[in-house]
Amino acid sequence: MCNCIDINLGTYKAAIPMWFDLRKRVVDIDVCLALEIKNLWWMGIYTIESCCGHNKVDGYIAVDDSCIIHMLDLGYQEYQDKAGFFYPKSVPRIIDDLLTQDNDIEVVGHCGNCGVEYHIHKINALDGLKKSNKNTMNVRAKFVCYGIKDNPPSESKTVTFGAVVSGSEENKSFSKFTPSGSLEMIISYDTPASEAFEQGKEYYLDISPAE
Fold first, then answer.
1. CB 93 within 8 A of CB 87
2. From CA 94, how far away is CA 90, in angstroms rounded?
3. Which of 151, 149, 159, 157 lies closest to 184 in space, CA to CA?
4. What does the pLDDT look like over 86-95, one tens digit per residue?
5. Are the beta carbons of 59 and 41 closer than 8 angstroms?
6. For residue range 63-87, what is the model confidence (pLDDT) as tens digits?
7. Which of 35, 73, 136, 154: CA 20 to 30 A from 101?
8. Phi/psi zone of residue 132: left (φ > 0), alpha (ψ -120 to 50 degrees), beta?
9. SS3 of 47, please?
10. In contact, 93 and 131? CB cutoff 8 Å
11. Sign of CA dihedral 192, 193, 195, 201
12. Is the pTM of this model over 0.85?
C-alpha cells in the first residue's frame, strides 16, 4: 500500500508537478510514484499516465507501445493483462482476495520498496498494513558506483552510487524491490575506504539496525 490517506480516485491531491523532458512539459505525478517515474524517464521510458491507487485499487504505470518490451525487460508485470499498463514496483499491490479470507487467516506480503515482511489480517484490512516485529531484519540492496570526485581542499573524495536496474538477472531481481535509490559519501583521504571504490563497479549495500 502507498502513503495516501483519504485521497479519492480521479483527484490530483496527492500529485506533484514534474518536468517530463521527453514531452517537453510539466505533468502531475502521484508523489508515491514520483521517484520510480523519474527513474523510468531517465532510462528513456515514455510514460502515458500513472496512478498509485491511493490505497483503494492497485496502482499502475502506462507507457507508450514502443516501451513495452523495455518495461518487460526491466521485470515489470503487466497490469490486469492490459497492453502497455504495468504494476509499479515502488507501491505494494492491494491483496484483492483478502476479504475472502477467514478472520484468523493471516496473509503475508512484502513491501515493494525494501522487501520488509508485512502481516495482514481481514479484520484490519481496511485500516492498512500492520508491520510485524520482523521490520528489524537486515536489508541488502545492490548499487553501482556512478562517480568519484576528488576534493583536494578538504582532502576527501565524493563517491556517488545509484540502485542497479539492469545488466543481469540478479540486478533485475534487486530492481524489483529498489527501482530507484541514491547514495553519496564524502570519504576522507585518511581512510583506506577512499581507495575502495571504482566507478562503474557494482556493490552490495547491507543495512542493519544499530543495536
1. yes
2. 13
3. 159
4. 999 888 876 5
5. no
6. 999 999 999 998 899 987 788 999 9
7. 136
8. beta
9. strand
10. no
11. positive
12. no
